TrEMBL record:
It comes from Pseudodesulfovibrio nedwellii. This is Trehalose-6-phosphate synthase. SUPFAM superfamilies: UDP-Glycosyltransferase/glycogen phosphorylase. InterPro entries: Glyco_trans_20. Belongs to the glycosyltransferase 20 family.
């Protein structure tokens, strides 16, 4: 790549490839999730770099050579930040997931404010910043992803390293009265205002951040209107923006049209005797509201006995943080609830709730989306929730209904044509499902086509473009693919 040409450096807790020990050997598996989907096309063959932890804490593992082949195939450089087991425990399981995750999702009673977690968080953030400083040039644009790495700009500046650096928070930002419970609230705000651009999922998250900033720095002023505003705080000037993350719409829609996937979707409908399918898809996490959702199905069947035998609720729960006690308890609670509802309502030939606790292959998941008549997406709180968007993209027949939590970030974009519910209101969700069940074909089609259009227009590439435009007045197209074919000059 020509020197002086700007490249993109993405920094996240995990690399887009995970190292896993299988039968005594280390293997490299491509990562999954919205961020990988979003960033891989941006970096591929454009001279980009992705910095993160590999997922291995064994000092004897030669991570770099294991990842070299993956790098070659992916079309961008992967740089690892080596972390010990103690560092992962303190910074990732501790501060990130026992403090920031519950606090920012309005579940502060689940927080464990241990000072040792905070120290580990700072140590690991400093470690990351050292790698970022070494692996990037002054011309590069550094894009930091998510709550694990909020101190990157702060540490780079403390080292005297000048970089244009943006940060995007994938989870919600809490209101001031919740944020102020954090013992290190001032230090965190100080770290975030060192970025040139801080991005949030919604305008509401941005508003919450400004509220917290002004509590701690009453002199902070906000200028401008629209998606991106400028903040003056002390001697700092930086920008804040709302950039709702999205999906690769065409990838999902096209996959749902593929003959083998369409056949799978038809087989699912056949297996359930063409009853209406209500679908929930979530990572197993207490923010997703799965127990509340199952209780809502119980309420639905109690209140509307006419639906017995005419619908099936399918809940797919993707395993997550299985070694953490709270998640084990959650899994047990869900399994017991499923048993209780099925015990109460089943009759020969019909079991109301089908619960799958496993990772589904991509094409199978898309078949479920395509087969479902109602997408039931009811997190207690969510930064965005891409399941809502994936469900719409796969609904090529435009015959589905999206029942969506008002506390998901996606509600800000999709509220006009989704059926919004309060995830804590079992009666309200039951009523919403019953109403959606009886919508006419025209009504379903009108709303679903509008939802699909919204997701198609504001897709993942639009998200990347809008962030880069705000950060460095560039778009994805300004990072051209590097020519891989070289002709020798005669």
């Amino acid at each position: 790549m020509e020197s002086g040409m700007q490249k993109l450096v993405v920094v996240s807790n995990r690399l887009p490839a995970a190292l896993k020990k299988e039968q005594g050997r280390w293997t490299v598996n491509p990562g999954s999730g919205g961020l990988v989907t979003a960033m891989a096309p941006v970096l591929k063959n454009r001279g980009g770099t992705w910095i993160g932890w590999s997922g291995a804490s064994d000092p004897d593992v030669d991570v770099d050579s294991l990842l070299a082949d993956f790098s070659k195939e992916a079309g961008y450089e992967l740089c690892t930040v080596p972390l010990t087991k103690e560092e992962v425990d303190g910074y990732y399981f501790g501060f990130s997931n026992e403090i920031i995750w519950p606090l920012f999702h309005d579940l502060q009673t689940r927080c464990r404010f241990y000072p040792k977690y905070w120290r580990a968080y700072l140590d690991v953030n400093f470690k990351f910043a050292e790698v970022v400083a070494r692996k990037s040039d002054q011309d590069d644009y550094i894009w930091i992803q998510d709550y694990h790495l909020m101190h990157q700009a702060f540490f780079l500046k403390s080292m005297g390293v000048k970089r244009n650096i943006g940060f995007f928070l994938h989870i919600p930002f809490p209101t001031p009265d919740i944020f102020m419970k954090l013992p290190w609230r001032w230090k965190l705000i100080q770290a975030l205002i060192e970025y040139d651009l801080v991005g949030f999922q919604t305008i509401q998250d941005r508003r919450n951040f400004v509220g917290c900033l002004q509590r701690l720095m009453p002199e902070a002023r906000v200028e401008g209107r629209g998606a991106v505003v400028t903040v003056h705080a002390g001697n700092r000037q930086f920008r804040l923006g709302a950039f709702p993350i999205s999906i690769d719409y065409n990838q999902f829609s096209d996959l749902a049209k593929r003959p083998d996937v369409a056949r799978k979707a038809f087989e699912l409908k056949e297996a359930l005797r063409h009853r209406k399918i209500i679908l929930g898809v979530d990572r197993l996490d207490y923010t997703k509201g799965i127990p509340e959702r199952i209780r809502s199905i119980q309420t639905l069947l109690r209140r509307y006995p006419d639906l017995k035998g005419r619908m099936n609720f399918v809940q797919i729960a993707v395993p997550s943080r299985e070694e953490v006690g709270e998640y084990k308890d959650l899994r047990t609670e869900i399994e017991q609830l499923v048993g209780r509802v099925n015990g109460e309502f089943s009759f020969p030939g019909w079991v109301p709730v089908h619960y799958h606790y496993r990772n589904l292959p991509y094409d199978e998941l898309v078949a479920y989306y395509a087969a479902a008549d109602i997408g039931l997406v009811t997190p207690l709180r969510d930064g965005m929730n891409l399941v809502a968007k994936e469900y719409c993209a796969c609904n090529n027949s435009e015959d589905g209904v999206l029942v969506l939590s008002e506390f998901a970030g996606a509600a800000a974009q999709l509220q006009k044509h989704a059926y919004l519910v309060n995830p804590y209101d079992m009666d309200g969700i039951a009523k919403g499902i019953h109403r959606a069940f009886h919508w006419s074909k025209e009504e379903r089609s009108l709303h679903m086509s509008k939802l699909r259009e919204q997701v198609r227009k504001n897709n993942i590439f639009w998200w990347v473009d809008s962030f880069l435009q705000a950060g460095i007045a560039k778009t994805l197209g300004d990072f051209p693919e590097v020519e891989t074919v070289h002709f020798e000059q005669v």
